[in-house]
Amino acid sequence: MAGIDHLTDASLRRFLHGLPGVDQVGLEARAAGLGTRSIKTTSKAWAIDTAISMIDLTTLEGADTHGKVRTLCAKAAHPDPSDPACPTVAAVCVYNDLVDVAVDALRGTGIHVAAVATAFPSGRASRAVKLADTQDAVEGGADEVDMVIDRGAFLSGHYLQVFEEIAATKAACTAKDGREAHLKVILETGELTTYDNVRRASWLAMLAGGDFIKTSTGKIQPAATLPITLLMLEAVRDFRLAGGRQIGVKPAGGIRTSKDALKYLVTVSETAGDDWIDPDWFRFGASTLLNDLLLQRQKLATGRYSGPDYVTLD
């Protein structure tokens, strides 16, 4: 892009610090206003199904097992076994040593397998280790890689270091057989401290070749918030308008209810536009959101609320 043709730390700093400052009051007021928008009953069924189709169903615990991942994959492929019309989720997200289990369980479903890499969630490892982590996930069959940026380097102003690490990770997303995995860049916005930093990190990740920008690992609070997601949606919109590619957005962590998910869909439509109302361009990173969406879906179909015993456990 113009202004950073000769890439150096200084040129990146000039570019990123030349971005417009974020009006905190205005941003939070707009997010609050979008959060009050209602969706008519006739559109709510469509919105719930759309939200289900955008979920990265996630398990990222130290106690994860092959059995837990297979169970999660079964739920991803058949979220409501009583209703074959219920859409599948977009992806299942696991640690990279469990990628092969998810790939086997999801074969033929069209559901993507996403793996967290680059020393998730801290990102505290050498670049060689991070790239090996990424390559291991891709060679194992991951369609998508969720990497974490080095927040310490970013907050210290070492923008070129962060840029080069994202670019190197993107290059590592190409398998030996030529298959390319999409790269989601996790900013860990809860550690970036300011909205201006979130805007700068978003642009840095996009310039470096990320296919998605993602709010959080889900391990740090605050995780996804509506104002932060609104800000990132403005960034991907403005990036494309400036001559860049279309980039996806993934809020992750803390989105648990259908009501919240619908607020995010309204925010996507009103901010970036309907081009982003698609699982290729917007995802929810979630482990519990699907259950509430299924309960609300059943309520719309039957007129009564079934309760949590009527959906499968994650």
Automatic annotation (TrEMBL):
Q: Note the CDD domains from the entry.
A: DeoC (cd00959)
Keyword Lyase in annotation:
yes
Secretion signal span: none
Which pathway, metabolic or otherwise, does it act in? Carbohydrate degradation; 2-deoxy-D-ribose 1-phosphate degradation; D-glyceraldehyde 3-phosphate and acetaldehyde from 2-deoxy-alpha-D-ribose 1-phosphate: step 2/2
What EC number(s) does its UniProt record assign? 4.1.2.4
Q: Which residues form a coiled coil?
A: none
Do the record's keywords include Lyase? yes
Please give the Pfam families that the UniProt record associates with this protein.
DeoC (PF01791)
The record's InterPro entries line, in alphabetical order, gives: Aldolase_TIM, DeoC, DeoC/FbaB/LacD_aldolase
Query: Which terms in the Gene Ontology molecular function aspect does this entry carry?
Result: deoxyribose-phosphate aldolase activity
What protein is this chain from?
Deoxyribose-phosphate aldolase
Species name: Angustibacter luteus
State the gene name recorded for this protein.
Answer: deoC
